[in-house]
Design brief:
about 30% helix, alpha/beta, Rossmann fold, about 170 residues, single chain
Length: about 170
């Protein structure tokens, strides 16, 4: 059986909650849940399937000191990892009402890092059921992963995750 891990950050909030929901639906794969704040170089090589979860921090913090979500420290580590032959999926948390010009932008930033290493993601999502103005996570007409808005669309989260995980299973098991 292929090994699966869900790397997520920050801990203790909605990103972790979504990561746990995804893990429940991927129970057959027995995924490891790994906060990126605790991940170290070499962790990636243990897994065939990777799910990365990241939150987009709002504009009020962009002009201040960077918020330590774990990803700020882990992205340079990830840049040095070998992602060849890995199936990679991303989910991102964002707020489409207060930050419609930056909806799930961090997911796009993480995607660019992965793409820059010659890899692509699975589990792209059609934006037609989302309301936003702009997003760095929109590439060639699709979100590069699953956008989740727990602030203003929490009632849609469960079905969005379920549909997305069903799609991931097709990729993770081939």
């Amino acid at each position: 059986m292929k090994k699966t891990a869900i790397f997520y950050g920050p801990e203790g909030g909605r990103t972790e909650s979504v990561a746990k929901q995804i893990a429940e639906l991927l129970a057959e794969e027995k995924p490891d849940l790994i906060p990126v704040s605790k991940a170290v170089k070499g962790d990636i090589k243990k897994y065939d399937n990777l799910v990365f979860g990241i939150a987009t921090i709002g504009k009020e913090t962009w002009d201040a000191e960077p918020v330590k979500t774990g990803w700020f420290e882990y992205m340079p580590v990830l840049e040095d990892e070998n992602l060849e032959n890995k199936k990679i999926a991303i989910f991102g948390l964002g707020d489409h009402v207060r930050w419609p010009l930056h909806f799930v932008d961090s997911m796009g930033e993480l995607y660019r890092l992965i793409k820059g290493k010659g890899q692509d993601t699975v589990g792209k999502v059609n934006p037609e059921d989302y309301t936003f103005d702009e997003s760095e996570a929109l590439v060639e007409g699709l979100f590069v992963g699953l956008p989740v808005d727990e602030d203003f669309e929490a009632e849609l989260t469960e079905s969005r995750i379920k549909n997305w995980v069903n799609e991931l299973k097709k990729h993770f098991n081939d």
